[in-house]
Design brief:
Number of helices: 9
Largest sheet: 4 strands, antiparallel
CATH architecture: 2-Layer Sandwich
Strand content: 5-15%
Shape: elongated
Structural class: alpha+beta
Number of domains: 1
Distance between the termini: 92 Å
CATH topology: Muramoyl-pentapeptide Carboxypeptidase, domain 2
Strand order of the largest sheet: 3-4-6-5
Bound molecules: zinc ion
């Protein structure tokens, strides 16, 4: 008789545990079925940021790709062709915009890394101006070939395969973190990942300096926090894109992202 309250307590406790377990199991089944991905952060990507040198990095970090984090479907309208703007500095490449045929990167090796030749002089000037202000800038990733992008993508797929039985699900998840070959802005040679891939880069003096001065040299912060819904790419404080001084000045002044700027430009040209 004396055990009764305890027995009641324990059976109540067991029922609660079972209920919680059931809820967890159901949530798990639901998330798996709806294509939810494990939020694997690219901590390994920080390897590229481990370069303590104030000078530009001489090697491409294989794991610094943070090109996309998006649910966008590639079957959506190809925006770049829709814009009809063939100005090479404004080429739009992203999860739903394959590198267009008309764009060919003019590759050149500078700062020990391959990039588009249009970027060399502006970056050299920006690097020197920053250094004058006591700011060290270095490039951790610039141009990435299809082969390298493929390698990064496959690495990411392997990560997701550990938590997904279905290989196409693993690929879909991987694509949210690393672009497929041909869909990365790094294929243009016009994108630079600066000072490593660090999510807290925006807490540094270098970031604040870039915020004030990057546009003067033709660079924009390509994936701002406030534009994630439009760029469909997660905030990347380290990723800068060369668009030319004039374009960068307007984009910065108007607080637009590249997609918005292209829309404005297209409307402007079609009403001419
Ligand atoms: Zn990047």
């Amino acid at each position: 008789m004396g055990n009764h309250p305890f027995r009641a307590f324990f059976s109540g406790f067991a029922a609660a545990v079972l209920t919680v377990a059931l809820i967890v199991l159901c949530t798990w089944i639901f998330l798996t079925a709806s294509g939810w991905c494990f939020p694997i952060r690219e901590t390994a990507g920080e390897a590229g940021a481990a370069n303590p040198s104030s000078e530009p990095s001489s090697s491409i970090s294989l794991l610094t790709s943070k090109t996309s984090n998006t649910n966008i479907n590639r079957e959506e309208t190809s925006v770049s062709s829709a814009f009809g703007i063939n100005e090479r500095n404004l080429v739009l490449v992203g999860p739903s915009n394959k590198l267009p045929d008309w764009y060919k990167p003019k590759l050149i090796s500078a700062f020990g890394i391959q990039m588009d030749s249009d970027v060399v002089e502006p970056y050299t000037k920006m690097h020197a101006a920053a250094a004058k202000d006591g700011i060290s800038l270095w490039i951790s990733s610039a141009y990435r070939s299809d082969e390298l992008q493929e390698k990064l993508f496959r690495q990411e797929v392997r990560q997701f395969s550990k938590s997904s039985a279905d290989s196409s699900a693993a690929e879909a998840c991987a694509e949210k973190a690393v672009a497929r070959p041909g869909y990365s802005e790094h294929a243009t040679g016009l994108a630079l990942d600066l000072n490593g891939v660090k999510s807290d880069f925006d807490q540094t003096a270098a970031f604040r300096w870039l915020d004030r001065h990057a546009a003067e040299y033709g660079f924009i912060l390509r994936y701002p926090k406030s534009k994630q819904a439009i760029t469909k790419i997660e905030y990347e404080p380290w990723h800068y894109r060369f668009v030319g001084q004039k374009n960068a000045a307007t984009i910065k002044k108007s607080d637009l992202c590249l997609e918005e700027y292209l829309t404005v430009r297209q409307k402007g040209s079609s009403s001419d």
